[in-house]
Design a protein that fits this description.
The complex is a heterodimer of chains A (about 325) and B (about 350). With about 325 residues, chain A is α/β, with parallel strands linked by helices. In chain A, about 30% of the residues lie in helices and about 25% in strands. The longest helix of chain A has 18 residues. With about 350 residues, chain B is of the alpha/beta class. Chain B contains eleven helices and twelve strands. In chain B, strand 4 and strand 5 form a beta hairpin. Classes of the chains: A alpha/beta (about 325), B alpha/beta (about 350).
Chain lengths: ~325, ~350
């Protein structure tokens, strides 16, 4: 998928880890991400959903070059990032930032908030002292925190406020892209809505591009323009948020949507697609990754090609049995 | 099962009399040095036999603390400073440690959110699973082992005999939670307390575990007290719901009644703040301003008032007062019409 409007793009990207086996000392290879291609357009929010262990966080880290891919390419505004020397990479880094799930451990407990926000600017030598100070106030205001609180330490803030600090820090260098790895998963429902709204507001105001990773389907749907669904290191389906959630084509997407609990009276009685077993069971060689668990699998699924097929405009899936239209 | 369920419904009609577990005006304090802070005040609810009662609330609402206090599992800082917890009519708070120990396991069992730390990493699943049975049911090691395999199979674990010999780290999160459930069931409890049992699990596994818990209830007729923060889980599981906020029960109703006619401004806000998967995305999401209060010891009246859209109109009432909306549905919200009461 070559995209003219792409800001951030990955092509046939894979990441393998060597792990020692359960009962032996012989190292095995674990494919965390396998042959993933996607492009994120300017000003959009690209959501990635999937269950734990599906490789979505690894993909996020690959996209911001915190990890080097085993194979494949990472492009930021057409520049090859994965092969870029570290010194040069450091100069591009301010333009893509990351926010993590655990705001508690991603803030240094021994630094005041203003020092936390100042640090990226000092490191990248942006602005003089007064400019940096002014920028700190501006950032706090932007994320809805009282400026008087800048002398406090992270422990004095609640989970939601700490996540606001993390967002402010990510914004401090005026990035083009922010990769958000489960930014609201650890937060209470009432606070979650505040952060989701803040993210959308900031996107409109600053023209930011987001990659939003999450497992809360409602939250991902709310912020994303397009969504990709990952399973066992591969993207199995992607499309515009509404199209994907209203007309899921891949059995895994269907099962994921059906399993999500809904706060409605008749929620229990709806007919659902459900999967057998768990993700850790390896499918037979060459078969579709979902082969063991899929309720619709037949003989044709034993030969699997990891190739995206367009079943509706802008809606792609790897499932060979998904119907078009 | 059908019998006990009907019986429960019948008992609700006559008023809350035949409850398996009844918590009355429970009050829990945290003591640290000379300072005391209240973690729960005036918590009252009952669980009927064969019933699934969900207690829903955000962090700091006091829901987990309440659950822990039932089995006397509060750590040193937590102290029950008032109220009573009646199990089959007997006050658990008055019991000696040995008596309570008999209730744990055979009367009441508990499973936790933290599947990582709830199993001992240095013992096999089999050893941990059979320990309770040998101790509480007085059966032999061999019988317990066979029973353990049956229990694991019942919770949906394939090749259970091999799993018995494995260590916790060799199992996935979903498998570990199944082991925990098997362990909780091993002494045939009358009440299962489940504190966020699916929060650490993925949605497809969460769904499997919820199905499992429901079918176990139907089969054995045990009651379940389910603690959760997720209204979706509530909708999938509950017969009746208690909503908690800032250490207090604020609303109580049968499931359908609560979902269709939430009466407390907090319950309503909570329901609106959750983005649904088919919702229109063009609007800003409804969000509750502010944060859950950390200190509310001396707060007068409704604790949600500072964050409530109609907080200014709220008539200050004492904490004890309830407003009955319909039989079985009561709330501590006193704003008529608007923020509640659509009847």
């Amino acid at each position: 998928m070559i995209d003219e409007m792409a800001v951030l793009e990955v092509r046939h990207i894979s990441k393998d880890y060597r792990i020692s086996g359960e009962n032996s000392l012989i190292a095995k290879t674990f494919h965390a991400v396998e042959d993933v291609s996607l492009s994120v357009r300017k000003g959009e929010t690209f959501g990635i959903v999937g269950e734990s262990g599906c490789g979505k966080s690894t993909l996020a880290r690959l996209m911001v070059c915190l990890e080097k891919p085993t194979s494949g390419e990472v492009l930021f505004q057409g520049m090859r990032m994965d092969t870029m020397p570290e010194g040069q990479l450091r100069r591009v880094r301010p333009r893509f930032q990351m926010v993590f799930q655990d705001s508690g451990s991603s803030l240094n407990p021994r630094k005041r908030v203003q020092d936390i926000l100042r640090e990226p600017m000092l490191y990248h030598r942006i602005g003089n002292r007064q400019q940096v100070d002014r920028r700190v106030d501006e950032l706090l205001e932007m994320v809805g925190l009282p400026v008087e609180m800048k002398d406090r330490y992270p422990h004095a803030f609640s989970g939601g406020q700490r996540q606001r600090i993390c967002i402010a820090r990510a914004l401090s260098l005026n990035p083009d892209v922010i990769v958000l790895d489960e930014p609201v998963s650890a937060l209470d429902v009432s606070v979650q809505a505040q952060i989701l709204n803040l993210l959308r507001e900031l996107q409109e105001k600053l023209g930011l591009t987001y990659v939003f990773i999450g497992h809360g389907l409602g939250a991902v749907h709310y912020v994303s323009h397009r969504i990709a669904v990952m399973y066992l290191g591969q993207i199995v389906e992607y499309g515009s948020s509404d199209e994907l959630f209203d007309h899921p084509a891949h059995p895994y997407t269907k099962a994921l949507l059906d399993a999500a609990p809904v706060a409605q009276v008749d929620a229990r009685d709806r007919i659902r697609t459900s999967l057998k077993g768990e993700m850790d069971e390896e499918p037979p060689r060459g078969a579709c990754p979902l082969f063991n668990r899929c309720p619709f699998a037949d003989a044709s699924c034993e030969k699997f090609e990891n190739r995206m097929r367009e079943i509706a405009p802008g809606h792609f899936t790897v499932c060979s049995r998904a119907k078009e239209g | 099962m059908a019998g006990s369920f009907c019986q429960h419904h019948a008992s609700r009609e006559v008023g809350i009399t035949q409850q398996l577990l009844e918590i009355r005006h429970l009050q829990i304090d945290f003591v640290q040095g000379h300072s005391r802070s209240r973690a729960a005040s005036d918590v009252s609810f009952g669980v009927g036999s064969g019933e699934i009662l969900c207690v829903v609330g955000e962090s700091g609402s006091g829901k987990s603390i309440t659950a822990l206090s039932i089995l006397g599992l509060l750590n040193r800082q937590g102290r029950v400073s008032g109220g009573e917890i009646l199990f089959e009519g007997k006050n658990l708070l008055d019991m000696k440690e040995e008596e309570l120990d008999r209730i744990r396991g055979t009367g009441i069992a508990m499973i936790f959110q933290d599947i990582m730390y709830s199993l001992n990493p240095v013992f096999t699943i089999g050893m941990q699973l059979t320990e309770g049975m040998i101790r509480h049911r007085g059966i032999s090691r061999k019988e317990a082992w066979a029973e353990g395999i049956r229990l694991l199979e019942r919770t949906g674990i394939r090749n259970a005999p091999q799993v018995m010999k494995k260590y916790p780290h060799m199992l996935s999160g979903g498998m570990r939670q199944r082991v925990m459930i098997a362990m909780a069931l091993s002494c045939r409890p009358k009440l299962l307390i489940a504190d966020e049992p699916t929060t650490a699990l993925d949605v497809t596994i969460q769904y499997q575990i919820m199905e499992l818990l429901r079918s176990l209830r139907d089969e054995t007729g045990m009651s379940i007290l389910l603690i959760t923060h997720d209204l979706g889980v509530v909708a999938e599981m509950a017969d009746r719901v208690v909503v908690m906020y800032a250490g207090q029960c604020i609303e109580e109703a049968p499931l359908a009644e609560l979902l269709e006619h939430p009466a407390h401004a907090y319950t309503q806000s909570l329901m609106r703040a959750v983005p649904g998967i088919h919702d229109d995305r063009s609007h800003l999401l409804y969000s509750i301003p502010g944060y859950v209060p950390q200190e509310y010891g001396e707060m007068q009246g409704c604790r949600f008032a500072p964050r409530c859209p109609k907080g200014a109109e709220c008539p200050i009432r004492s904490l004890e007062e309830w407003r009955e909306i319909r039989p079985g549905h009561r709330t501590r919200c006193w704003i008529e019409g608007g923020a509640g009461d659509d009847r």
